[in-house]
Write a structure and sequence with these properties.
By secondary structure, the chain is an alpha+beta fold. The protein is built from five helices and five strands, in the order αβααααββββ. InterPro entries: HotDog_dom_sf, MaoC-like_dom, UPF0336/Enoyl-CoA_hydratase.
Length: 169
């Protein structure tokens, strides 16, 4: 709701204290500690389409016997396809975000048909000119709390406002 008195107060305070932020006044603004999540089940067709684009033809993704002979229960989802959840989460909440870096550690296999929860947690946000550099802890889980992948990401956000219709955890 538009409140002229609150807007005037913010304007006057920002003149005298330009580094003071009002992000805590809005529930739809990301802050350090906020977690954004999305779930995804990777299908055989997802793996096939990824293979066509990436030219990743590792038989562990397509041949169950090969996967089992290597010690896995079933065919694997490529790790980089699973990792694609992280930029997807950030871009869906902050259209126009620029993905700068990502580190990854693959902890456990992901099998076709398993539900994976991707999670990004804001660990540091700083303003630079009219944009924001945000660092995130990144994790993917299966079966509730079993970590299959983790790492860190950095993105340049055009705003701290979370896109409407999205939620923070």
């Amino acid at each position: 709701m538009y409140n002229p008195a609150k807007m005037l107060t913010k304007h006057i305070v920002s003149i005298f204290y330009p580094s003071l932020r009002f992000s805590s006044l809005s529930a739809s603004t990301i802050k350090t500690g906020d977690i954004l999540k999305q779930a995804r089940i990777f299908s055989s067709s997802d793996v096939l389409e990824y293979s066509k684009l990436s030219h990743d033809s590792n038989p562990l993704h397509f041949d169950i016997e090969c996967a089992q002979n290597a010690g896995f229960e079933d065919r694997l989802v490529p790790g980089m396809l699973v990792a694609s959840l992280f930029p997807r989460i950030i871009a869906s909440h902050f259209p126009g975000a620029i993905y700068v870096s990502q580190s990854l550690q693959f902890r456990s296999p992901v099998y076709i048909g398993e539900e994976i929860i991707g999670e990004v947690e804001a660990t540091n946000i700083r303003a630079i000119k009219n944009k924001y550099v945000a660092k995130f802890k990144t994790k993917c889980f299966k079966q509730g709390d079993h970590v299959v992948m983790d790492g860190e990401a950095t993105a340049i956000l055009p705003t701290l406002a979370v896109e409407q219709g999205q939620s923070m955890g």
